[in-house]
Description:
Elements: E1 11-14, H1 22-26, E2 37-42, H2 51-54, E3 61-65, H3 74-88, E4 93-98, H4 100-112, E5 124-125, E6 134-139, E7 151-155, E8 160-164, E9 172-175, H5 185-203, H6 210-227, H7 236-255, H8 260-272, H9 276-284, H10 292-304, H11 319-330, H12 333-340, H13 344-347, H14 350-358
Parallel strand pairs: 1-9, 2-3, 2-4, 4-6, 5-8, 6-9
Antiparallel strand pairs: 7-8
The chain binds nicotinamide-adenine-dinucleotide and zinc ion.
Amino acid sequence: xxxxxxxxxxxxxxxxxxxxxxxxxxxxxxxxxxxxFVYVIDSFFENKIGAKELNSKPEDLIYYIxxxxxxxxxxxxxxxxxxxxxxxxxxxxVVGMGGGSIMDIxxxxxxxxxxxxxSTQYQGLNLVKVPxxxxxxxxxxxxxxxxxxxxxxxTGPEKKLGLKCDYTVFHQVILDPELTATVPTDWxxxxxxxxxxxxxxxxxxxxxNAFSLAYGNQALELCRDVYLNEGSGKTPENDDKLMVASxxxxxxxxxxxxxxxxxxxxxxxxxxxxxxxxxNCIIFQHLEDIYPEGVREFKAMLEKNNISLPRGLSKxxxxxxxxxxxxxxxxxxFMWHHAFGDNYREIATPDYIKSLFRRL
Length: 360
Ligand code: NAD
Ligand code: ZN
């Protein structure tokens, strides 16, 4: 068996106020290429973080991106790349500041600035041939682990699939929990539960190992502090913890794998546009037979934080939609393999997957 040779982030800075170190961190990189930086920032920060707060240079380009109409798309990244190159040529680097959507846009943009053609050509494993430009991530919501992962998930005309390779990983991340203070409570819950589900799925499957468990167990403990134990709730102290949990949950799944909830989540997002973390929550509540302890604890967290999730969604879905969703999920065999073991093909049939969708 070939073991994963994981490319980790080159450098990490963590702590309240560490965002202020950004200019100093990127200064040495400014001599590269056409000597300017591109910032892609979640539009939530449009009137809050500008050139002054970033301490950017007049030659830099700042883009505020609204991630709400849809999750990042291949077309969106290609268009942005074309615009940047035609304006100013190859930048020294890309800084992404926002949630998982912006992390993915920044990672994909960095790759597409140096790789020709459309990003749809690179959706998959190790299809990117040339390293991208320097890229730095500043997460402002904790949970997805996109800050540490090897993939930049994009929705294309055919697939929702990541550009996954060593070059995707950030050169640097700045983890400043202060930036997550403004996250609304419902999203704080859904995105944090993405971390929780990463750890449960990583643990309950054949690819778990001492390495993935060590990260996963620690991240689970942090999630319990944030959502369940005494002192839980959206406090600065818990924001500090959740940012670390997100990173560790990401590392846990990297050394293991995600499972049934994520496989279904991709199908739900692709067909109905449901956002990743929210989709996971909607699905996970119905998987008690597969992840009994995890779902029980998840439900306790729901109750503790007064979160209610929709049910009965599948009543309005057509057979065609169910087929489409099942096809997307079925095409993630490594997740089913991890969850169900070597004879997963006998269990995770398209009919079975459809039956799981009917539970929603
Ligand atoms: P997001 O980036 O989609 O943002 C969700 C919402 O939170 C947006 O409205 C945004 O404006 C807002 N927001 C962000 N920071 C805020 C702040 N500090 N205060 C107030 N509002 C803020 O959220 P997400 O759930 O982190 O990311 C989901 C995306 O991540 C999906 O596109 C999914 O495909 C992707 N993802 C990627 C990976 C990976 O490994 N690359 C893993 C999981 C999910
Ligand atoms: Zn996830």
